[in-house]
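The pair is set out directly below:
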Amino acid sequence: MSVGDSPLSEGPRAGNGAVAGGSVGNGAAPAGGDGHRPQGGPGAGPGTDPGSGPGTNDVSLLRLRGISKSFGPVRALVGVDLDIQLAQVTALVGDNGAGKSSLIKTIAGLWEPDDGQILWQGQPVRFHGPKDAEAVGITTIYQDLALCDNLDIVQNMFLGHELLRRGTLDEDTMEERAKQVLEDLAVVTVRSIRQPVASLSGGQRQSVAVAKAVMAKAKLVIMDEPTAALGVAQTAMVLGLIRRLSSQGVAVLLISHNLNDVFAVADRVAILRLGRMVAAGPASQFDRQSAVDYMTTGSSTRDGGRAHSGSEHN
């Protein structure tokens, strides 16, 4: 799948935000981040993502500080710190039970954290539900994709947000916009935008789900195992789609067990183990073996000390 530089027909969502302690409102700070890969250094404090340590001037799109979540006696997340920048792919990796699903559901507003702070564009926010997260520009694409097989591509992309004209569906405008977004994402394998989703391949379904997120003007797209159960060609299609999203200024949080996919597209890597962030930094500071070391033991000597480990919060 080719990756080009054509801009989206509609830009990212502007300025709604959820303010600390309240529901979604107006007045969030302007989005930060200049699209360049943040650099870590030995001075980054324990437990911090080195892309945003003291002394940096950029404002992360999303910043988590000390996020904890428990279910009875089970501590799913313990003092998790994470920074996500605009126009970058951040890969979140970890073994089964590491806390990846708990973290993305907290970011997506399904669960409120027991402790810690979420900052969106530099402002503290509290999400009371998924609609709050979606209102500021966070879209989550789960493994089941949440698509309706009996509807066509256009109907799925506008589901719940249909355009009306004089009290009836504006089919022509919806078709034009859907076609434009798919073209901007270089989705060229779809035979017709009016074909049922049930007839699409796994990679094409992912494309529709991503296009739906772009249509909603998402600033951050969370993708949960997007290449699971896909063949080689379909995986390449989805990875190309992730690169295209990033090139158009959208932040991507990629959750994947496939380290080959992670290192093919990620600008940054964050590693969870038993609910704790044990390492985070530019992807260039890791290799597959050091990532496995962090996932399984919480430490590694293979990166020469370049990656920064998260602290064991108590």
